């Protein structure tokens, strides 16, 4: 039975014969040429579908194993970190770049976080999100690190998760500047990486207590 092929950025599908690949598209923002390239590769290799994913990527679904290398070569793009113990995704909304509701620059901050952390090894899977306003379209309250824009700056939340054990993230700092957010996230990531735990961040925080976590990360 075929399995996932992390080295090829490929996830085995329900038929246990074909694979899906999802190029890295930070924030899901792209120009028309990228969309054309995705469509061309999907057609060339007989993909079953193209699917927009929850991590703001576009997956090419239903590729044969023997076509994976050629499909990636034609795309000329890096894989999204869709599996493994790492920073899986940094999800962000249009923020003040595009949205009339935006209070903060979610795109600018999201791109900085994505560039630094996407794919970085972690003790467990790890997801981040940035929203430009309290509408929270990027769902920061169910991410390991969630950042929500307000009229007075950013609110930083930690320990959220969806999945089999859903958990709402807990606010740990408010009215932060972009620079303060980046510094705080760096402290959180460093502490978590060196903690020796194998738990997801929310479960780890539960085991040591939120106040101890805040103390250890300077929040």
Topology:
Elements: E1 10-12, E2 19-21, H1 32-44, E3 49-52, E4 58-63, H2 68-75, E5 87-92, H3 95-98, H4 106-117, E6 126-131, E7 145-150, E8 153-158, E9 170-176, H5 178-193, H6 201-208, H7 210-217
Parallel strand pairs: 5-6, 6-7
Antiparallel strand pairs: 1-2, 2-4, 3-4, 7-8, 8-9
What would you note in describing this structure?
With 219 residues, the protein is α+β, with helices and mostly antiparallel strands. Helix content is 32%, strand content 21%. The protein has helices spanning 32-44, 68-75, 95-98, 106-117, 178-193, 201-208, 210-217; strands at 10-12, 19-21, 49-52, 58-63, 87-92, 126-131, 145-150, 153-158, 170-176. The protein has a five-stranded mixed β-sheet with strand order 5-6-7-8-9, with helices on one face. A four-stranded antiparallel β-sheet has the order 1-2-4-3, covered by helices on one side. It is globular, with a radius of gyration of 18 Å. The termini are far apart. The model has no long low-confidence stretch (mean pLDDT 96).
Summarize the structure in short.
The protein is α+β, with helices and mostly antiparallel strands. 32% of the residues lie in helices and 21% in strands.
Oligomer: single chain
Counting helices, strands and paired strands, the structural category is alpha+beta
Helix content: 25-40%
- Ends distance: 47 Å
Q: In sequence order, what are the helices and strands, one letter per element?
A: EEHEEHEHHEEEEHHH
Summed up, the helix count is 7
Question: How many extended strands?
Answer: 9
Output mean pLDDT. 96
Radius of gyration: 18 Å
Global morphology: globular
Largest sheet: 5 strands, mixed
Strand order of the largest sheet: 5-6-7-8-9
